[in-house]
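Long-time lurker. I teach an intro course on protein structure, and each term I like to show students one example going from raw sequence to a predicted 3D structure in token notation. This year I'd like something fresh instead of my usual example. Would anyone be willing to generate the tokens for the chain below so I can use it in lecture? Attribution to the forum is fine with me.
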Amino acid sequence: MVNSDKSIFEYQVPPFVQVGAVLITITVFILVSSGAGAIGILDVDGGTPWLIAVSLTFFFTIGNSIMSLAADDQNKYFWQSILSYVLLAFLGGSIAYLASGESMDIYGSYRWLYVMFAIGHLFFLTIVRTMRKIVDIAKKQDNRLRGED
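-- Reply from a regular --
Happy to contribute to a lecture. Here you go:
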């Protein structure tokens, strides 16, 4: 067992790796829910794959924003995050479409949820990026005041 004092905020996980993990999770959840629905454990309809895909896309948005704190190059991470969100929305939606056999419009307002989560993704990334800049400025100012500059 390795004992590490490293915080989760210090791990640099690229956005595309995060997307891969979320896509695997979407697939597993859809397969489990379909299996549970087939044997009568859960009441599953055709909208369940869409619900799973949209929910885990929002989970990605939150996790990706938090993981951006550890990124060395904030500009690179920002653009990779945007591209990875688009990739996740497309591939996650494709998986949900294949599992349900129906468009997202039939099962509710999932299209609007994708749009709102995209806007939220940009908003969260911008907030975290701004917070990091403020903390960096404060650290520089503190070092300057201590004479450690």
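Some talking points for your students: The chain has a mean pLDDT of 88. The two ends are 39 Å apart (CA to CA).
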